[in-house]
Amino acid sequence: MDWKTLQALLSGVNKYSTAFGRIWLSVVFVFRVLVYVVAAERVWGDEQKDFDCNTRQPGCTNVCFDFFFPVSHIRLWALQLIFVTCPSLLVIMHVTYREDREKKNREKNGENCPKLYSNTGKKHGGLWWTYLLSLFFKLIIEILFLYLLHKMWDSFDLPRLVKCSNVEPCPNTVDCYIARPTEKRVFTYFMVGASSICIILTVCEIFYLIFKRVVRSTQRWRKSIKRSVSYSKASTCQCHLKTEEKDDKSQTRCVA
């Protein structure tokens, strides 16, 4: 897997991300991708070869391994990292779409034409909704993969000994031993902890975006109220002036 290409694509998201988004991206690449590439792949490299069972029945070891490890930790984490980083590409695609529209507008109406967007990377309008939607996608994916990991291996635990029973072609109950169980357990807890931190950061970013949007809407609402009040006062003053002018003219006529 070419993680450098993925990192190059996602590095552009930093320009449009909030502070929480930048921290999230750092946690993903430092504590998850880097640990995955440097250490985790090597730890799980011998998982099937060193899965040892106390029987020589042909096919029993492979069947027991498939029974207890329907999906490998390392491949599940690879899928998780790919799926959890893909929603960020929606933001880049939306910004690229805005830039393309801006370019076509200049080509059609000239360089001095009014801009369609004050800033193509500013999170307002449709881009704000795209960014928020990408956060919800990331949150759902993180929770879903943690649930799958917990469901397949109870409480993210890796026991030293597993008992394979009632699984053909294994005879009776077969004891099987996992290679490097303690080391794998440590890495599993580490990856689960890093994923939990990413979930917390994503939730914080969602609340931050919504709070910031509410504050801006409230400020605009207050400004519109002030403008309407000032406009009504100005119109009332003009009405008073006109009334006073009419009264002065009528008094002048009466004196004449």
Automatic annotation (TrEMBL):
<keyword id="KW-1003">Cell membrane</keyword>
<feature type="transmembrane region" description="Helical">
    <location>
        <begin position="77"/>
        <end position="97"/>
    </location>
</feature>
<dbReference type="GO" id="GO:0005243">
    <property type="term" value="F:gap junction channel activity"/>
</dbReference>
<dbReference type="GO" id="GO:0007267">
    <property type="term" value="P:cell-cell signaling"/>
</dbReference>
<dbReference type="InterPro" id="IPR013092">
    <property type="entry name" value="Connexin_N"/>
</dbReference>
<keyword id="KW-1133">Transmembrane helix</keyword>
<keyword id="KW-0472">Membrane</keyword>
<keyword id="KW-0965">Cell junction</keyword>
<keyword id="KW-0812">Transmembrane</keyword>
<feature type="domain" description="Connexin N-terminal">
    <location>
        <begin position="42"/>
        <end position="75"/>
    </location>
</feature>
<feature type="transmembrane region" description="Helical">
    <location>
        <begin position="187"/>
        <end position="211"/>
    </location>
</feature>
<feature type="domain" description="Connexin cysteine-rich">
    <location>
        <begin position="141"/>
        <end position="209"/>
    </location>
</feature>
<dbReference type="InterPro" id="IPR000500">
    <property type="entry name" value="Connexin"/>
</dbReference>
<protein>
    <recommendedName>
        <fullName>Gap junction protein</fullName>
    </recommendedName>
</protein>
<feature type="transmembrane region" description="Helical">
    <location>
        <begin position="128"/>
        <end position="149"/>
    </location>
</feature>
<dbReference type="InterPro" id="IPR019570">
    <property type="entry name" value="Connexin_CCC"/>
</dbReference>
<dbReference type="InterPro" id="IPR038359">
    <property type="entry name" value="Connexin_N_sf"/>
</dbReference>
<dbReference type="Pfam" id="PF00029">
    <property type="entry name" value="Connexin"/>
</dbReference>
<comment type="function">
    <text>One gap junction consists of a cluster of closely packed pairs of transmembrane channels, the connexons, through which materials of low MW diffuse from one cell to a neighboring cell.</text>
</comment>
<dbReference type="InterPro" id="IPR017990">
    <property type="entry name" value="Connexin_CS"/>
</dbReference>
<comment type="similarity">
    <text>Belongs to the connexin family.</text>
</comment>
<keyword id="KW-0303">Gap junction</keyword>
<feature type="transmembrane region" description="Helical">
    <location>
        <begin position="20"/>
        <end position="39"/>
    </location>
</feature>
<dbReference type="GO" id="GO:0005922">
    <property type="term" value="C:connexin complex"/>
</dbReference>
<comment type="subunit">
    <text>A connexon is composed of a hexamer of connexins.</text>
</comment>
